[in-house]
Amino acid sequence: MIHTFKHYFEPLDPLPNSITIKPFLRERDESIPNIIKRKWQGEKLILPQGDIGEVTVLDVVETDGVLTLIYTVDGDHLYKQANAIWIEDSKGTRYDSDQSATRVDGTNNKFQLTFSHSLHQEEFVLNTVLMNSPNFLKQLEVTIDLNEDQ
């Protein structure tokens, strides 16, 4: 079975010299995922994500009832990892972000995620899931040159 996923990373500023497309196989696993939970305590927090890498939450900003997580992602599939985060209140109620993770301008692996819920910083738990690294198909990798000089 073939699935197509679309991810939009716009705008690309400055325009890169090239874009590389890396197809990969993803294992279908019907087992219950292993969830990692860590209580936010107001300082840098590392959330391991298994073989794929980890997320480091740098800060949480609360403005007008909206929580914004600011974090870095290290690993093999940054976009997937960046979006595999949610929060829970002290009763275990899950809250998902309002939209996909947004890359912080001028960075490769720093993201932010917003939650429009009136949870105070002291009252929530950060969650992610353990994941395997993707099986990249190196022989199908394609790099597209974007230089205007050619």
N-to-C series of helices and strands? EEEEEEHEEEEEEE
β-strand percent reads 35-45%
Total DSSP helices:
1
Largest sheet: 5 strands, antiparallel
Radius of gyration: 17 Å
C-alpha termini separation: 38 Å
Uncertain segments are none
For the record, what CATH class of the domain at 33-132 applies? Mainly Beta
Shape: globular
Output the structural class.
Answer: mainly beta
Question: How many β-strand stretches?
Answer: 13
CATH architecture of the domain at 33-132: Sandwich
Q: In which range does the helix fraction lie?
A: under 10%
Physical arrangement of strands within the biggest beta sheet: 4-5-6-10-9
> Averaged pLDDT, please?
86
Outline the structure in words.
- The structure is a single chain.
- The chain is mainly beta and 150 residues long.
- It has a domain at 33-132: Immunoglobulin-like, CATH 2.60.40.
- The relative contact order is 0.28.
- It is globular.
- It is built from 1 helix and 13 strands.
- The protein has a 5-stranded antiparallel sheet. The protein has a 4-stranded antiparallel sheet with strand order 3-11-7-8, with no helix packed on it.
Walk me through the topology.
Elements: E1 18-21, E2 24-25, E3 35-39, E4 45-48, E5 53-63, E6 66-75, H1 78-82, E7 85-88, E8 94-95, E9 102-103, E10 110-115, E11 125-129, E12 135-136, E13 142-145
Condensed summary:
It is built from 1 helix and 13 strands, in the order ββββββαβββββββ.
Short descriptors:
single chain; mainly beta; Immunoglobulin-like; five-stranded antiparallel beta sheet; four-stranded antiparallel beta sheet; 3% helix
